Amino acid sequence: MMAAERIAPELLDRLPAVRGSYEPCAVLAPTTWFRVGGPAEVLYTPADTEDLATFMRGKPADVPVTIIGLASNLLIRDGGIPGITIKLGRAFNTIDADGTALRCGGSAVDASVATTARDHGIAGLEFFTGIPGTIGGAVRMNAGAYGREVQDVLISATAMDETGTLHKLTREDLGFSYRHCAISANWVFIGAELKGITGNADEITKRIREIRAEREDAQPVQSRTGGSTFANPSEAKAWELIDRAGCRGLIRGGATVSEKHCNFLINTGTATASDLEGLGDEVRRRVLDVTGIPLTWEIRRVGVISTDETAPINRMEGSV
After folding, report:
1. Are 51 and 20 within 8 A, CB to CB?
2. One of 35, 179, 285, 301 is an active-site residue; which one?
3. Residues 104 and 188 occupy one common structural domain
4. I need a labelling partner for 76 at 20 to 30 A (CA). Which of 203, 215, 276, 278 fits?
5. Contact at 8 Å (CB) between 123 and 200?
6. Is 298 considered catalytic here?
7. What is the pLDDT, as a whole number, of residue 1?
């Protein structure tokens, strides 16, 4: 029996009464893009903003809180996530147009933002179709694709702090930098307002299709992957450094470095989170040895590391 399964009932007794749902020992792996990872000790899905505030005000101070979205750029470790895992649900999955602006809930899917903008003749948000995940996560990491980032189109974001207080934050408040914002990881992004420009629906549709085709052609989008693994250093592209270090096709257990785009790690079907994280760390080590340039994880890693032994690093047959 896992630690989370032993602790969850005791933890549930300490949590505030909410209208949303608590799920002890919640299985998360099937909902993640990597399809790996241990359970959440308790998964909390708030009913609405006020319910989330009730939880934040009433939760025990010593209980850790982890916030997840679609788990598209996330690696949950095999030991699971202790404490409370918050996942915004349907109540936060809203997208409303107002002129050339969109008001989006924190769990609104990025690709849906792009198509909703198109449906209202709003251009400039097409790049969201190339970002897997939700608006909350996109704001959190200043996500970007195809030459644009969230900071280029953000009017404001709404976040809730640990006391249940709401904050409306401007772009300047958020302190954006490359794949990062300066707001505490304990705050929950529950919505954002994005700006576009008046556009032609047919032209917007064409650009969305181009982005989808480019992504399909360049990235292993049909594989169990977590998106771009490492952030690009200022002096080079991560994939070029990985390729130069001879890591294309590298294997650890059931995990491999993509042959199609070597800044992607793939679960070939039997990988554990430990396989994937160990492979990523081995790539970082080899890149540093060969190029002298450190790679920083772009994929967020959460939870408890398993004590199980991992498989050795091997070379994929026929790789470069």
Report:
1. yes
2. 179
3. yes
4. 215
5. yes
6. yes
7. 38
Structural domain range at position 43: 3-87
Nearest Cα residue to 139 out of 165, 113, 164? 113
Residue type, 200: N
CATH code for position 68: 3.30.43.10
228, 252, 277, 286: the catalytic one is: 228
pLDDT in tens, 110-139: 999 999 999 999 999 999 999 999 999 999
Q: What is the pLDDT of residues 34-58, one digit of tens each?
A: 999 999 999 999 999 999 999 999 9
Tell me if 320 is assigned to some domain: no
CA distance linking residue 199 with residue 138, whole number of Å:
23
Q: How confident is the model over 176-201, as pLDDT tens digits?
A: 999 999 999 999 999 999 999 999 99
pLDDT in tens, 49-89: 999 999 999 999 999 999 999 999 999 999 999 999 999 99
**Quick count: other Cβ atoms within 10 Å of Cβ 37?**
28
For the chain, the distance separating the N- and C-terminal CA atoms, rounded to the nearest angstrom, is 43
> Are 60 and 159 in the same domain?
no
Is 122 in the same domain as 156? yes
65 vs 318 pLDDT, higher one: 65
Both 106 and 197 in one domain: the answer is: yes
In the annotation, is 228 catalytic?
yes
Which of 137, 135, 261 is closest to 193 using CA atoms?
Answer: 135
306 catalytic, yes or no?
no
- Cα–Cα distance measured from residue 262 to residue 240, given in angstroms and rounded to the nearest whole number: 8
Given the residues 41, 126, 277, 298, the one annotated as active site? 298
In the structure, what pLDDT confidence band is assigned to residue 222 with cuts at 50, 70 and 90? Answer: confident
